[in-house]
Amino acid sequence: MRSAALLLFALATSGCFKLDPFLYEPERKEKYDFEPDGGTPEETVTADRIEPVRIEVDATLSLGAVYLRGSVQPPLAHVIFFHGKGGHLDKAFPRAKRWANLGFDVLAFDYRGWGNSTAVTPTEAGIEQDTRAVLAWMVARVGADRLVYYGQSFGTATSTQRAELDPPRALILESGFASVQAFARDSTQMDFPASFIANDGWDTEGRLGNVRAPVLILHGLSDDFVRPEFSQALYEAANQPKKLILVEGGGHSDLPKVMGEEYGEAIRSFVAAHLR
Questions:
Q1: Among 31, 85, 110, 243, which is most exposed with the fewest C-beta within 10 angstroms?
Q2: Model-level pTM?
Q3: Nearest C-alpha neighbor of 79 from the set 56, 60, 98, 55
Q4: Angle of CA points 149, 153, 154, to nearest 5°
């Protein structure tokens, strides 16, 4: 997020006074592809393991989603995957497949406004309604006993929002930021209030103190979009048990590639330790 200062200046001088599009970057998709084949074996599954689903939030709003069966059955745990701020579910699908190949059943979904979910403007309060419906769907499908929340980038904020209200057996946060307020302090020396950046606060750092679940935090030390210091702050805010993994050479979205087999080993061992 280091480039945010220039972006703030450009928008301010152009007469644009909000940066909500910087926080939310939904892309629309009329029909998902859910391609089984991937660029690597870790991101490839068989078609019979892919189940497109639709999750109803209310009478007027529904979410595009997909359920992936894990490479082992019964699965090690059931994972709800909260993706980042850009793109849509098809673009997040390779990461969901990677987790399924680690032995987890995975439910991935698009927030309101993303993909082919109902096209309404996303907000912090609205996304909370979305994830509440996603959790209810998952509990009805598999029960609540072995649920894990996994958030990547912006998904660390949405997953922690859900975990504060409905704790999982484990919460895993990858490449997260602390809050919109912290982003505003970190990214610019100009005297702009956090409300200039976004209407929503997404105070993950503040919420983590209320989360009663084991927390695993991963962040690349070479992440030039969201600095690793944010995850260090999240780690300090989280309750025990907790673990922080800082990855040498890791960027914002490439931790599985950089860590290799250690990525899956770290996740599986952490989850296993807290499902006993």
A1: 31
A2: 0.89
A3: 98
A4: 85
Residue 14's pLDDT is 38
pLDDT at 79: 98
Burial 212-235 (b: 16+ CB within 10 A, else e): ebbbbbbbbeebeebbbebbebbb
For 49, phi then psi, to 5°, come to -90, -5
Q: What is the pLDDT of residue 17?
A: 37
> What pLDDT, on the 0 to 100 scale, is given for residue 11?
39
**In contact, 190 and 8? CB cutoff 8 Å:** yes
Give me the domain span that covers residue 26: 4-273
CA of 258: how far to CAs of 97, 164, 264, in Å?
A: 17, 30, 12
* Per-residue pLDDT tens digits for 17-38: 344 455 788 999 999 999 999 9
| Euclidean distance between CA atoms 222 and 243, whole angstroms | 19
**CATH code at 205?**
3.40.50.1820
The amino acid at residue 197 is I
Q: Which helix (H) or strand (E) holds 141?
A: helix 124-142
Nearest to residue 158, comparing CAs of 138, 184, 130? Answer: 130
**What pLDDT score was predicted for residue 41?**
96
- By three-state DSSP, how is residue 149 classified? strand
pLDDT score for 22: 56
- When divided into structural domains, the chain yields a total of 1
Distances (CA, A) of 181 to 155, 196, 232: 17, 10, 16
- Residues of the chain with confidence (pLDDT) below 70: 1-22, 183-198
DSSP H or E segment with residue 265: helix 261-273
Bridge partners, residue 170, by sequence: 148
